[in-house]
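Give me structure tokens for this 239-residue protein.
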Amino acid sequence: MAELKGDDEIPHDDARRARQNRARRSHAFLRRGMIVALALGAFVLVEAVWRPFSNEADACSVDEARDARSQQGAALEDVLPGFVAARGGRKVPAVDLVAPDGPISTAYFSTQLPRTILINFWASWCAPCREEMPALDQLNAHFAQDDFSVIAVNLDRGEGSAELVETLFDAWGIASLVPYRDPDNEAYLGLRDAGGLGQGLPASLLVGPSGCEIGRLIGPAFWSDDEVIESLADLLKSG
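Here you go.
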């Protein structure tokens, strides 16, 4: 039986090949572990993130639950990692927010305009929230002439939170978003407890003009990517 040698006793090319083989075996092992973890995590994410709203919300009609928007919501899952399309269910409960000029209800966007809205809850202390805000601003600006709005809702509490949001928007160059706030976190907690949101920030909820949910996403996203914009454009054309 040949005696095993250390790398320093193996010719240079053989030593390099030996290290490469060990690295490949190690990487393959890590990949298998990551695939298993991601598979389990994806299952947990879907189970934890999507469930219908509670009975307090109005049920979506059969037509609303299976129209072209539902198909486009499912298509968004392919271009937005972590996005979970709605599987029917109930309408998103209206919640009250604070706009720069006073209180406003999200019901305004479905009853007065109506339009598709992306409600995005964020906080100044949330690094992923801050990173995705410019992309949300670009997304909102891109669809400025369409029936679509990004409703960016800040969750900072305490005195001076309104001024803080305005300061951050100025520093980040945010030009198209309205600085909505939920200073008591009642809107966020209400939707979370009703089944619309999981744990964590940022949290986004895509709602159709009829008030029915299209889908949701917990975590940051590249909202201004071309594929995302194209998918949202198709969704808006569908209804």
